[in-house]
Amino acid sequence: MGRHSCCVKQKLRKGLWSPEEDEKLFNYITRFGVGCWSSVPKLAGLQRCGKSCRLRWINYLRPDLKRGMFSQQEEDLIISLHEVLGNRWAQIAAQLPGRTDNEIKNFWNSCLKKKLLKQGIDPNTHKPLTEAHVKEEKKITDTTPMQTPLSHGLPVPLTFPSSQGSTLLIDSNYYDGGLTEASREIFLNKPALDPLSYYDFPMGAAQSGFNLPMTQYQTSLKASDQSPFGPNSSYGFLSMPSLTNSDHGNVSVTEFSDNNSASKISSLLMNDQVKESSSNSSNMSNIYTGGGCHISSMMENAGFSWEGDNKFDPLFQFQVNATKSEDFKTSPWEEGQLQTHSSIDYTSFPLTALSEDLTGENFDVFQHI
DNA sequence: AATGGGTCCAACCGCCACATG
DNA sequence: TCATGTGGCGGTTGGACCCAT
């Protein structure tokens, strides 16, 4: 048990990822997608185990990740989901597009737990603490002042941007166990979203999310020189945008952690190609609103910037020209394994942002509560 | 300016489930 | 059925950062 065999075979790097490593992994995954994580390090030229690569991608490099603080809505949602699901962070994360289980777990442990305790609510049971508990916890919370004022007193109406305008009201009944066993079952049985779905587009099912099979996406990448990673492509890995989308599905509230971010992201978006193809500006907004975006444009012009991770910021100020296209013309996954569909132009395949899941079936569960 | 304690979070560890041979 | 490899998850931790003194 413990470390996978891939980690034991050779001496592998551990610890924080360098920008160069991030770049390698990002470039590799965006080109070829994920086939077998254990092979990724070798093929991407990384001295890491596959597991580490997977985590890095899921928790940090995925382009659809949100960055920045949790919105009040997200916060309330996490609390309500935790009451139902407990520490099933992956399932909770599945209800919060752009957030990772690790991120939510950290947020819970570092912030939400304390907030609930301060409210006199047991974070484990979500029921009022006994007086003894309160006294005990008071000692703790008194010595660990909150960084932000608690703003979600009860009851809290949670209104989700569902097409049906569902509202979840957290009130005393809720915390008294007002949820039915059936509701709980729905949560427990609901499959978690695949964190890799960004590159997993089934044909004809774009409306349900990023669900194009990797094989097809891969084909799109190598289909022609027009592809975002074609032989002539030169893209930057400057730094990643910190997307603090405080209101799902509304591009106007996409925030950035500093003044430079806006210019960075606008330069990301307002590249020549996007300008040309989106005189009506819909393409731009679609990138973040989930109306459908062009992944190729996103990738090709991704002057990504990890703005939220300030300590990395200066390190990401490097530009990488695409390596020789020959190196990437054929995905290692494709060779002899995967079918190609070169007649289809996937470079403009419409995407639906994960955030749109908030308006879709992912919130159906609340209809049952 | 130095420092020591607290906080946060990225990454690792340990385990389990599942697929495959 | 068993062994092995891999993906995935939740718990834990090391170190960077923050802040009060």
UniProtKB/TrEMBL annotation:
SMART domains: SANT
Gene3D superfamilies given in the database record: Homeodomain-like
Keyword Nucleus recorded: yes
Entry-linked SUPFAM superfamilies: Homeodomain-like
Location of the Myb-like domain: 9-61, 62-112
Alphabetical keyword list: DNA-binding, Nucleus, Repeat, Transcription, Transcription regulation
PANTHER family membership: MYB DOMAIN PROTEIN 55, TRANSCRIPTION FACTOR MYB86-LIKE
Name listed for the protein in its UniProt record: Uncharacterized protein
Organism (species): Phaseolus vulgaris (Kidney bean)
